[in-house]
Design goal:
Blueprint: H1 2-11, H2 20-27, H3 34-42, H4 60-65, H5 73-83, H6 92-99, H7 109-116, H8 119-129, H9 135-143, H10 159-167, H11 175-184, H12 189-193, H13 199-206, H14 214-221, H15 228-237, H16 251-260, H17 267-273, H18 279-291, H19 293-303, H20 308-314, H21 320-326, H22 334-340, E1 346-348, H23 351-362, E2 366-372, E3 375-380
Antiparallel strand pairs: 1-3, 2-3
Helix pairs in contact: 9-10, 13-15, 15-16, 16-18, 17-19, 18-20, 20-23
């Protein structure tokens, strides 16, 4: 039989396109040597639907390598069960075969378990840790497997691949997986939590099963994928302060932080940025000032700056002496000028300015003030 096969193969270097039945018979012929079978596979354009129709497992690598079997998950699973069982890694020729095709792979969880039994979990993990698959095939292979881990067992997966794993929700938000991400993939914290919608983390926070650090929460809050409603729920549960400095929070989140989680070290920063803040943030800060006037005064002295609106809120909260100390730091320097120089500056006609001038008059820091032509004019005391 070898002589006959040799004659056929040596007669020309053309490719063969036999029927599936003829190819199967040729490859399963026991009187034919393996080298002839391998060369025949290399030159054959026939694609076998099922790798199991070839009895000799030693021919399977050539079948896979020559893409002489159908691009089907069953063939991939069977090949792994035969050649990956001893190493639990994806054989390079199988990785190359997976890379050679396109389209989805339907090896769902139960189907794969039924097909290769205990080897199914080994195959899933072999795919997870493989770095030879293209990112597109990696994503497709994992997406078709429909599985997840309550506690993810693998470490050291490169970030670009681990992001795919997280996007596919293979690592759902559980107490165990939070510990895994914190330990092994802290740089992917946001991708982990926001792979879905962060509701699962909020529930764990609400039951006090998980406590976030300030940096973990802040990182999530400034992520564009975070919905404001969920962010506000998290802040409602969170009991610590959150710094605003060097953070890009949305306006609703920023306002909520000012209202309930303002860090004392942020006060000088907010005093200086007050006029640039959105209206809701300014409003929240004025409410905060009304209940923390002494802290605001300390911060204003440190910053040597106090916005007019903030000073106005403090009028009924601080002593005359404390207001006098803060007066030179008012953003509008005309307040200090009318008190210290023989000048009559004009002010915008706003409720805050009216309240400040009325207080100044009561303390006899100015003699009087009045409205004229849409402006407020203050008059100094006689020097």
């Amino acid at each position: 039989m070898d002589v006959y096969a040799g004659a056929i193969l040596l007669e020309s270097d053309s490719r063969f396109f036999d029927s599936e039945e003829a190819l199967i018979d040729f490859l399963n012929c026991e009187s034919l040597s393996e080298p002839y079978k391998e060369e025949y596979i290399q030159r054959s354009d026939t694609v076998l639907p099922d790798m199991n129709t070839i009895a000799s497992r030693t021919l399977w690598p050539e079948l896979i390598g020559s893409q002489a079997v159908a691009y089907a998950w069953q063939n991939m699973a069977d090949y792994f069960a035969e050649f990956g069982r001893d190493t639990d890694i994806l054989p390079p020729e199988l990785a190359a075969f997976i890379n050679s095709g396109s389209g989805s792979l339907g090896w769902k969880y139960e189907q794969l378990n039924q097909r290769i039994n205990d080897q199914a979990e080994n195959l899933r993990q072999a795919i997870l840790v493989n770095e030879e698959l293209s990112l597109e095939r990696y994503q497709t292979a994992l997406a078709g497997m429909t599985f997840s881990y309550k506690k993810f067992p693998l470490h050291g997966i490169p970030d670009e691949r681990m992001k795919i794993v997280l996007e596919l929700e293979i690592v759902p938000v559980t107490i165990e997986n939070i510990a895994v991400i914190r330990e092994d993939y802290p740089q992917l914290w946001n991708d982990f939590v926001l792979s879905k919608d962060a509701d699962d983390l909020t529930k764990l926070m609400d039951t006090d099963e998980v406590q976030l650090t300030e940096s973990e929460l802040a990182s999530l809050l400034e992520d564009a994928r975070m919905e404001d409603s969920i962010a506000e729920n998290m802040l409602f549960i969170f009991s610590k302060t959150v710094s605003l400095q060097n953070r890009k929070f949305s306006t609703p989140v920023r306002a909520r932080i000012v209202a309930a989680h303002l860090a004392p070290d942020d006060l000088p920063f907010l005093l200086k940025s007050f006029t640039q803040e959105p209206l809701t943030v300014r409003s929240a800060f004025l409410d905060y000032t009304a209940t923390h006037a002494d802290s605001i005064a300390d911060a204003a002295e440190q910053a040597q700056f106090v916005p007019v609106e903030v000073y106005a809120v403090c009028l009924n909260k601080l002593t005359e002496d404390r207001l006098l100390i803060l007066r030179p730091y008012l953003a509008d320097k005309n307040f200090e000028i009318v008190c210290m120089e023989n000048k009559k500056p004009k002010f915008p006609n706003t409720p805050e300015v009216r309240a400040i001038l009325a207080t100044f008059e009561a303390y006899r820091w100015i003699s009087s003030w009045k409205s004229k032509d849409g402006k407020l004019i203050a008059y100094p005391t006689r020097k």
